[in-house]
Amino acid sequence: MQNKKQVHRLKIIWQLLKVTGFTTFLASFFSFIFLAAGLLLWLEPDFTSYGNSLWYCFVTATTVGYGDLLVTTTLGRLISILLAFYGILFLGSMSGLIVSYYTEVSTQYALIVENDKKKINSQ
């Protein structure tokens, strides 16, 4: 029974991902992070490895901003602004998707409970 519920919940999340187009947004978000990391590695003199550049992009996109790495070029700063905006859009969209998921799960659960009550009352 538990496994059946998990499969049903996975179907719900997959349906939400397809309907909202979030899978495409997710792919574009991570593609942009990896592309921006490469560009910043090439542009910024203080970024000595792709790992450092990727770390900076992740920290900027999640709006954490530790400050251990800084961009100094104008183009690097523009890329950082885009990363921050894209990260805010991504995190906001993901929050909406999570709320939609739990709303759908609770609706499904309420329907199951209601159907069970009807079966008990009809007997």
Describe the structure.
This protein is 83% helix and 0% strand. The chain has 123 residues and is mainly alpha-helical. Helix 1 crosses helix 4 (74-122), helix 2 packs across helix 3 (50-61) and helix 2 (22-43) runs antiparallel to helix 4 (74-122). The protein is rod-shaped, with a radius of gyration of 22 Å.
What class would the helix/strand composition place it in?
mainly alpha
Gyration radius, in Å = 22 Å
Low-confidence stretches: none
Name the assembly state.
Answer: single chain
Order of helices and strands: HHHH
- Largest sheet data: none
Averaging pLDDT over every residue, what do you get?
87
| Portion of residues within helices | over 70%
The count of strands amounts to: 0
Q: State the shape.
A: rod-shaped
Subcellular location: Membrane
Membrane topology: Multi-pass membrane protein
Keywords: Ion channel, Ion transport, Membrane, Transmembrane, Transmembrane helix, Transport
Organism: Streptococcus gallinaceus
How are the secondary structure elements laid out?
Blueprint: H1 2-20, H2 22-43, H3 50-61, H4 74-122
